[in-house]
């Protein structure tokens, strides 16, 4: 490698080693993957735990299988590097600037899961080398038929996203060697973030499919994820959880102007009776049958989900629908991502009014936050489902 590339690799490692939830060995393996991929470099490397590992063999596992789960599942790569990923570890949420509330409601079990981290410092390409950028992710997963799918998805989201992002970023660093304008660097970063999120959702579904087959799980989960970077947002949606943007607007009337909030839905529900969803289901040999609501083969009330492996052959997919990157403005006040239990008894306009009431302090009750106020109100108005909300003040 050239002296410049070696310096950049060292700097990238220094930045990436500070990523929350990661040990240096984890990140180092990914960059060594890049060295193998982009050169004839082959080595057996010694790590802090005294073990030696063949980098080329781990690279072969990654390339042959084509996904993060295959690398993590490798005894050689996993045991020697002590990866901090476990499907049984408890959910941890970073809540800087992040409000959230959950309620089991009238259901016997809580199958919703949430993840929120708005303070992720990640390495990125800059005009004169590497720089550190701040990212945020907020996500809800509404499980059905059990909590196994939503639990796994919420737990693996940040780890898988980190792995995909760093791997893709390293390959860009080797490809461009720092020879980028600021505009080119930002454009590439937005593309890497988008591709990393898509790969993450795909790999979570792959991993859960493997576990479901081994354990006869028949459950599934929605996934609604907001990715935030540099004053822009990207929304990915699988299923029927929702994301909204609440923004100021000026309403004129009777000679006066009053500040109001608009509610903009950022997602489209994946219901089987949607024309494009129905077409895919029927092309795969499935059918849309109304049983209370339209259902795939009379069973599942959504046409996209993580898991639900017994319906995959009938056109149920885990491919998210994306909004595309869109800028936030000074008029934007709140981002919200929520499971559909909220909207069983509330409309988007109802939620908007609750926000206005909370901000005017014209409320009574025991809610300790706006997110909790929304959840409690949805329950009080008759929602029978699990209830989960993440609210991000802007």
Describe this protein's structure.
The protein is of the alpha+beta class and 394 residues long. The protein has two domains: 23-81, no CATH class; 99-270 and 321-393, 4-Layer Sandwich (Phosphatase 2c, domain 1). The protein contains ten helices and 17 strands. The protein has helices spanning 3-16, 24-38, 55-65, 68-72, 75-81, 148-176, 182-215, 275-283, 348-359, 370-380, and strands spanning 44-46, 52-54, 99-103, 112-126, 129-144, 220-221, 223-229, 232-238, 242-253, 256-265, 288-291, 293-296, 306-307, 321-322, 326-327, 332-338, 387-393. The strands form four sheets. Strands 4, 5, 6, 7, 8, 13, 14 and 15 form an eight-stranded antiparallel β-sheet that branches. Strands 3-17-16-9-10 form a five-stranded antiparallel β-sheet. Helix 2 crosses helix 3 (55-65) and helix 6 (148-176) runs antiparallel to helix 7 (182-215). It is globular and about 60 Å long. Mean pLDDT is 80; it is low at 1-7, 9-65 and 77-95.
Query: Would you state the CATH class of the largest domain?
Result: Alpha Beta
Please identify, by name, the CATH architecture of the largest domain: 4-Layer Sandwich
The total tally of domains equals: 2
Q: Looking at this structure, what is the CATH superfamily of the largest domain? A: PPM-type phosphatase domain
Low-confidence stretches: 1-7, 9-65, 77-95
Amino-to-carboxy terminus distance:
44 Å
Q: For the residues shown, what is the average pLDDT?
A: 80
Number of helices: 10
The helical percent reads 25-40%
Q: Look up the CATH topology of the largest domain.
A: Phosphatase 2c, domain 1
Note the beta-strand portion: 25-35%
Which of globular, elongated, flat, extended, rod-shaped describes the shape?
A: globular
């Amino acid at each position: 490698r050239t002296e410049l590339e070696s310096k950049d690799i060292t700097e990238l490692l220094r930045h990436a080693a500070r990523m929350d939830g990661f040990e240096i060995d984890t990140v180092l393996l990914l960059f060594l993957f890049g060295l193998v991929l982009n050169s004839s470099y082959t080595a057996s490397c010694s790590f802090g735990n005294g073990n030696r590992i063949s980098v080329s063999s781990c690279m072969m596992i990654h390339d042959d299988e084509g996904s993060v789960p295959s690398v993590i599942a490798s005894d050689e790569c996993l045991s020697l590097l002590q990866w901090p990923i476990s499907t049984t570890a408890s959910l941890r949420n970073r809540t800087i600037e992040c409000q959230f509330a959950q309620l089991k409601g009238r259901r016997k079990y809580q199958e919703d899961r949430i993840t929120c981290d708005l303070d992720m410092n990640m390495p990125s390409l800059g005009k004169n080398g590497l720089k550190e950028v701040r990212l945020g992710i907020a996500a809800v997963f509404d499980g059905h038929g059990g909590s196994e799918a939503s639990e796994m998805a919420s737990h693996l989201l940040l780890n898988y996203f980190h792995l995909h992002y760093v791997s893709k970023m390293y390959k860009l660093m080797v490809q461009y060697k720092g020879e980028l304008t600021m505009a080119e660097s930002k454009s590439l970063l937005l593309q890497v973030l988008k591709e990393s999120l898509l790969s993450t959702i795909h790999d979570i579904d792959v991993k859960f499919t493997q576990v479901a087959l081994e354990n006869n799980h028949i459950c599934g989960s929605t996934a609604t994820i907001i990715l935030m970077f540099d004053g822009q947002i990207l929304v990915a949606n699988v299923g029927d959880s929702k994301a909204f943007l609440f923004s100021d607007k000026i309403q004129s009337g009777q000679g006066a102007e009053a500040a109001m909030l608009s509610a903009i839905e950022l997602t489209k529900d994946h219901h089987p009776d949607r024309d494009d969803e129905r077409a895919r289901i029927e092309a795969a040999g499935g059918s849309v049958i109304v049983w209370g609501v339209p259902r795939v083969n009379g069973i599942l009330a959504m046409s996209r989900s993580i898991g639900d492996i017994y319906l995959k052959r009938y056109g149920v997919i885990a491919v998210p629908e994306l909004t595309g990157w869109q800028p936030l403005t000074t008029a934007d006040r709140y981002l919200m991502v929520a499971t559909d239990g909220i909207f069983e008894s509330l409309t988007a306009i109802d939620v908007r009014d609750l926000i206005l009431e909370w901000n005017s302090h014209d409320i009574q009750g025991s809610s300790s936050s706006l997110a909790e106020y929304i959840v409690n109100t949805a329950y009080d108005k008759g929602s029978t489902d699990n209830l989960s909300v993440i609210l991000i003040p802007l």
